[in-house]
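At this stage, I wrote out one protein, both as residues and as discrete backbone shape codes, and that material follows here.
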Amino acid sequence: MSETKLFAVTGNPILHSKSPCMFNNAFESMNLEARYIRIAADSATEAIYLFNKTELSGMNVTAPFKEDIMPFLDIIDDDAQKIGSVNTVVKKDGKLIGYNTDHYGVANSIIEADISLKDINAVVIGAGGAGKAAAFGLVKNGAKVTIVNRTLAKAKAAAQTARLQI
């Protein structure tokens, strides 16, 4: 029997997250030796400490740590670097590697519904880590994106990340 792999989600707050239920059901249905837990942390520093202390194979990162966790990583994927936020951390060969998969989720869910993103007009509400990733994924697939946010400065920063004209 293989060793059980351990995965987690971290953020603050995190107790409301449905990720453990969803992932554990998926692991069970696929007969995978894996468990998924929540890690409550007060900071990205604490989240990384707990990641290493519990010997996790991977961790999903949510608000408010998506940007703050980046300095603690050894390698950051090109798309995550461009977006400026990480939502997935994996340990490979002793190194912590950060990825952003949010942009795939947004763009692919639309594409899989047989909707072409080429030249479509899209609105992204919010300019935080997920908003920047959504805009990035839409633009990368040919959409024309408008970002709406409470603060203009954050909307402009997100627009630059997604390579939108301001």
About this structure: The two ends are 56 Å apart (CA to CA). The longest strand covers residues 5-11.
